[in-house]
Amino acid sequence: MSLLQINELVASHGLLTAVRGVSFNVEEGEILALVGANGAGKTTLFRTIAGIHKADSGRVMFQGKDVTGVEACRRVAGGIALVAEGRRLFPDMTVEENLKLGASSGRKGTWDIARVLEAFPQLKKVFKSRASHLSGGEQQATAIGRALMSNPTLLLLDEVSLGLSPLAVDGVYASLQHLIDAHTTIVLVEQDLNRTLAVAHRIICMLEGEIVADGKAADMSREQVMEHYFGTHRSTHGEAVA
Questions:
Q1: pLDDT computed for residue 162 by the predictor
Q2: First-to-last CA distance in the chain?
Q3: Quick check: helix, strand or coil at residue 146?
Q4: Residues paired with 65 in a beta bridge
Q5: From CA 93, how far away is CA 99, in angstroms rounded?
Q6: How far is residue 220's CA from residue 223's CA, in Å, rounded to a whole number?
Q7: Which of 56, 62, 117, 211 is the most exposed place for a label (fewest CB within 10 A)?
Q8: In 80-213, which ranges are continuous DSSP H helix?
Q9: Are strands 80-83 and 4-13 parallel, antiparallel or unpaired?
């Protein structure tokens, strides 16, 4: 049984259908990357999986249970954590306070402040600093750490490197390697295709709310992914890009 099953999911913003009949599975321990231009539906898909955005139709199955109608806070308690685009930290709270908020669901597990600081050592020197005073890389590390404090079974990372300097991106990805080595199940949205191809086991390309390619990262070249990204090549959903 797959950890996450998305079945014919449809989600809209008013009259605009952002996610159009999307179906895919995520296996335990898998690193899946969603790739697509702005407006492809990636963020809406993430928000619908997390329960922040309501699905029009279709199903979200998590650990064999239908959670389509389950509210977001209960999905967090059940093991789904979203690191939203833009980090969404509480700016007047310290790093410590933001991290502690992540544990408010009461979900048991191995992630605590000590382990987060081990995975993200750049946070040690700013632990008592307000989030508004942090660099972009430190804010992203704090946002990921806050999500980990809920001890998720599935981690959704939206736009990991957006707005960060190359050095900050290096730091965040170095820390993410701790999660990858621990076989954490991750679905990520990343605009940096070189990073995507380096860390992902599998890549799904989205275009105008639909999946246009789904295959193993090892079988995809940067050029092939870019063709799907811009809609110059369509493959049958479920086929690896060849």
A1: 83
A2: 27
A3: helix
A4: 62
A5: 10
A6: 8
A7: 56
A8: 95-102, 113-119, 136-148, 166-181, 193-199
A9: unpaired
Query: Could you tell me which of 228, 233, 232, 210 has the C-alpha nearest to residue 40?
Result: 210
pLDDT recorded at residue 238 = 43
SS3 15: coil
Query: Within 13 Å of residue 131, how many CA atoms lie on the same side as its CB?
Result: 20
- Please check whether residue 84 is in contact with residue 76, taking contact to mean a CB–CB distance below 8 angstroms: no
CA 119 to chain centre: 18
CB 187 within 8 A of CB 121: no
The pLDDT value recorded for residue 185 is 96
Residues in the chain: 242
The amino acid at residue 220 is: M
Report the run of H or E that residue 158 belongs to, with start and end. strand 154-158
| Burial letters 146-160, b for 16+ CB under 10 A, else e | bbbbbbbbbbbbbbb
Nearest CA-CA partner of 99 in 58, 150, 55: 150
pLDDT of residue 226: 87
Low-confidence ranges of the chain (pLDDT < 50): 234-242
3-class DSSP state of 208: coil
> How far is the CA of 31 from the CAs of 28, 100, 113, in angstroms?
9, 26, 24
- In the numeric block, the tokens 């660099």 are attached to 135
DSSP 114-132: HHHHHH-GGGGGGTTSBGG
Question: Which amino acid does the sequence have at 120?
Answer: F
From the CB of residue 73, how many other CB atoms can be counted at a distance below 10 Å? 11
Measured N-to-C along each axis, helices 136-148 and 95-102 cross at an angle, to the nearest 10 degrees, of: 30
